Amino acid sequence: MATSDDPEWMNAWLSGASLDDQLWLQAMMTERVHQERRLRARDDPSFTYDLVLGSLIQRGVSDALSDNCEHIASTRAMRHSSAMGNRLWMLLDRERERVGLSFHCGLDPC
Questions:
Q1: How many secondary structure helices (H) and strands (E) does the chain include?
Q2: CA 97 – CA 87 distance, rounded (Å)
Q3: How many Å apart are CA 55 and CA 50, to the nearest integer?
Q4: CA–CA separation, 23 vs 44, rounded Å?
Q5: Contact at 8 Å (CB) between 59 and 85?
Q6: pLDDT of 20-67, one tens digit each?
Q7: CA atoms of 22 and 30, how far apart (whole Å)
Q8: Rounded CA gap, 69 and 65, in Å?
Q9: How far is C-alpha 73 from the geometric centre of its chain's CA atoms?
Q10: What is the reported pTM?
Q11: Which H or E run contains 29?
């Protein structure tokens, strides 16, 4: 498995693991990405951070991280929706950077 020092850490997948274990891993990765996103927004005013979406995703992850799993199905649903939202946001960030690079570079290859 990739470590957080490796750029591929966000693409980690536990082959053969249970759904709950996969969702737990995705919740951990989502938490890490959102910590980095909040820090970047604090330090870089040009970085777009949607507070509502970030808060909703964070809520799903933080509730999923608690040891109080009385409602396993709802915990699983929160983890899943937070992980899905996080992946979509990561794809949006990647596309925004790609378009921004091509916009700034014009026709010259960067």
A1: 3, 0
A2: 15
A3: 8
A4: 31
A5: no
A6: 888 888 888 888 888 888 898 889 888 877 777 788 778 777 765 555
A7: 12
A8: 9
A9: 21
A10: 0.58
A11: helix 19-43
